[in-house]
Design goal:
This protein has 591 residues and is of the alpha+beta class. It has three domains: 7-30 and 71-225, Phosphoenolpyruvate Carboxykinase, domain 1 (3-Layer(aba) Sandwich), CATH 3.40.449; 230-298 and 390-590, Phosphoenolpyruvate Carboxykinase, domain 3 (Alpha-Beta Complex); 302-382, Phosphoenolpyruvate Carboxykinase, domain 2 (Beta Complex). The protein contains 17 helices and 30 strands. Strands 11, 12, 13, 14, 15, 16, 24, 25 and 28 form a nine-stranded mixed sheet that branches. Strands 1, 4, 5, 6, 7, 8, 9 and 10 form an eight-stranded mixed sheet that branches. A five-stranded mixed sheet has the order 2-3-18-23-17.
């Protein structure tokens, strides 16, 4: 039975059901009783496996098809009406052509299956930030994950029905179909507020509230409506006076974003009374508040984290978040005690186990037991360091924005932009160097502006313009910084210890944001002096080493400037003149 009389919702559901032809339609009300029944159905069908109820209560293991294990950028499209609005960094097809192509694939795709109607809200439904969506899916796995990652059900429908425009919702359609790689599409139609996904059953391809809505569609909505949807964690730092100050930070993959979001202060800081609170680990929606500051909410309700490498040293808070009510996807099934394992969890791989494909496995043959992109879906409320502002409808005020990347020599440990415009430039040139773990050559510079390259729902040149325009509208904008935890010595070893010790750098950043810390000028922006970063009880880093980490090599930065010219050329006439001016300033400063 439908949960609503909302004509816009009902007519759209009817239209999609007529195309996909499900045997049954079930509306998701969000109740624990309904979710428990769906878990029982999924267990009976063999889609999920119940794990040890004593060691991992309420936890389940799921395996995807072997050909369906990751986000698929080459099958992901932004179908704006004009190709120039999609831009050079997105795949594009004319919307009518794409709809026609997909309708063939969707026709009858749910025959013999049930269509689940999931009303969901990005952030707290009662928040002024909230955006509503309906996802139609034939996957119980999707329903169970969306119940963790978003707010779902009757509560959401009530808020949508009471909204100024009850027809203002994102329309998400997902069908597993045949899980056919050649016909796999994840398509955003920004001007139609619509997402269609077919032939995948995995993660972000099918949890349409995640990157598809919360970034690709939301970035377009934000530009249209005057706010920002960003690929950023949100973090609160509580100082010894009990004051909590908030920052947002964007990093490309493999740069320690989740670890930073759940940072545990080093002992010397803990003893002084510092605490760190996680508001979000992945996405931030930012709006100008009534006080003229930028305020942020985390639109998600859960963590969809990469399992391999997560352990009690790298990220204890993330690991502890997964100890109950969590869905694990494509990890090792430890048959000895019916728990899970993955590479990097500990040094004791199980001897009696099944790998992520469900095959008998032990580590002796050298193969990986868990897929490198295996995941956990865990409720954020279970995180030991979750902020008490996590559910705050108004969000939190942002005093600093941090960009970062993985650079062996070029970028210093930290520097501050001169102003907002320069900060947009700093974000636009964000880059990481490929490591041995990545495919292809090592040390290649890959630019990922604001960590949004795969997630911007429109032309990136227009995205830069939106950032610049927002800066003119924010009376009290946050200060903008860049960090690099990954400087290496000549042997390739990391010089900075990272992890909890990154708080030493964040402390300086917050000091700068509140006018309490010193800095010196450099060709690239403001730098701390070595004495401005505390090395108390940090034996591995001397003042001389820290001075080296804060150094700016002009020759390397001249090479960097050449690379920026090459990257900027992609955006043609859409590249804002202000960014060209900032690049010219950089080159002039370098001499």
């Amino acid at each position: 039975m439908a949960l609503t009389n909302n004509k816009a919702v009902l007519s759209w559901v009817d239209e999609m059901a007529a195309m996909t032809q499900p045997d049954e339609i079930v509306w998701i009300d969000g109740s624990e009783a309904q979710l428990a029944d769906l878990r029982r159905q999924s267990l009976a069908a063999g889609e999920i496996i119940a794990l040890n109820p004593e060691k991992l209560p309420g936890c389940y293991l799921h395996r995807t098809a072997v050909n369906d294990v990751a986000r698929v950028e080459h099958r992901t499209f932004i179908c704006s009406r004009r190709q120039e609005d999609s831009g050079p960094t997105n795949n594009w097809m004319e919307p009518a052509e794409m709809y026609a192509k997909l309708r063939v694939l969707y026709t009858g795709a749910m025959k013999g299956r049930t269509m689940y109607v999931i009303p969901f809200s990005m952030t707290v439904p009662e928040s002024p930030f909230a955006k509503f969506g309906i996802e139609l899916t034939d996957s119980i796995y999707v329903v169970l994950n969306m119940a963790i990652m978003t707010r779902i059900g009757t509560r959401v429908i009530k808020c949508l029905d009471a909204a100024k425009d009850p027809a203002d919702f994102t329309k998400g359609l997902h069908a597993k179909a045949a899980i056919d790689e050649e016909n796999r599409y994840i398509v955003q139609f920004p001007e139609d507020n619509t997402i269609w996904s077919i032939n995948s059953g995995y993660g972000g391809n099918v949890l349409l509230g995640k990157k598809c809505f919360a970034l690709r569609i939301a970035s377009y909505l934000g530009r249209t409506e005057g706010w920002m949807a960003e690929h950023m964690l949100i973090l609160g730092i509580e100082n010894p006076n009990g004051e909590v100050r908030y920052l947002a930070a964007a990093f490309p993959s493999a740069c320690g974003k989740t670890n930073l979001a759940m940072l545990i202060p080093p002992d010397v800081y803990r003893k002084k009374g510092y605490k760190v609170w996680c508001v979000g680990d992945d996405i931030a929606w930012l709006r100008i508040g009534p006080d003229g500051r930028l305020w942020a909410v985390n639109p998600e309700a859960g963590f969809f984290g990469v399992a391999p490498g997560t352990n009690m040293k790298s990220n204890p808070n993330a690991l502890l978040s997964t100890k109950k009510n969590t869905i694990f996807t494509n990890v090792v099934h430890n048959l000895e005690d019916n728990t899970v394992w993955w590479e990097g969890l500990d040094k004791n791989p199980p001897q009696n186990a099944l790998n992520w494909k469900g095959e008998k496995w032990n580590s002796a043959d050298g193969s990986k037991g868990a897929h490198p992109n295996s995941r956990f879906t865990a409720p954020a409320a279970q995180c030991p360091c979750i902020s008490d502002k996590f559910e705050a409808p108004e969000g939190v005020p942002i005093s600093a924005i941090i960009f970062g990347g993985r650079r062996a020599k070029t970028a210093p440990l930290v520097y501050q932009s001169r102003d907002w415009q320069h900060g947009v430039f700093v974000g636009s040139i964000m880059a990481s160097e490929t490591t041995a773990a990545a495919s292809g050559a090592v040390g290649v510079v890959r630019r990922d502006p604001m960590a949004m390259l795969p997630f911007c729902g429109y032309h990136m040149g227009d995205y830069f313009r939106h950032w610049l325009d927002m800066g003119k509208k924010i009376p009290n904008p946050p200060k903008i910084f860049n960090v690099n935890w990954f400087r290496t010595d000549d042997e390739g070893h990391f010089i900075w210890p990272g992890y909890g010790d990154n708080l030493r750098v964040l402390d300086w950043i917050m000091g700068r944001a509140f006018g309490e810390a010193e800095a010196v000028t450099s060709p690239i922006g403001y730098l701390p002096r070595a004495e401005d970063i505390s090395l108390e009880e940090l034996d591995d880093v001397s003042p001389a080493t820290l001075a080296g980490l804060l150094s700016v090599d002009k020759a390397l930065w001249k090479e960097e400037a050449a690379g920026i010219h090459e990257f900027y050329a992609k955006f043609g006439d859409k590249l804002p003149g202000e960014l060209k001016d900032e690049l010219a300033k950089l080159e002039k400063n370098l001499g």
